[in-house]
Amino acid sequence: MAKAAEKINKEKLKNTLASMASMFETGRIKQMKDIVTMYPTGIVLALGINYGGYMSKCAAPEKFVLEDLVKLAQILNIDLELILKVVTKEALKNTAVKDIDYLL
Fold this sequence. Notes:
Elements lengths: L1 H5 L3 H16 L14 H8 L3 H9 L6 H11 L3 H15 L10
């Protein structure tokens, strides 16, 4: 992990985290896809997840695990609810209603 951290532009990461936090706080992030171009190399390293997983989860936020969202809120230093609001809205839109009539 130390070698990967050496490749990170710390100033760029700091600025990206501040921008991303501000965007969540002001409601400018409407969907998780809005953040994928914001220095993803630094973000995935800070989150401790892989690049491909991050990209696919941002494209289909219902696939995020709560731990990832908690970590994102922590590194952004924002209220988790701001991120959950975006993710939940998308997940409800992307997930088909489960029919369980056959079980009843």
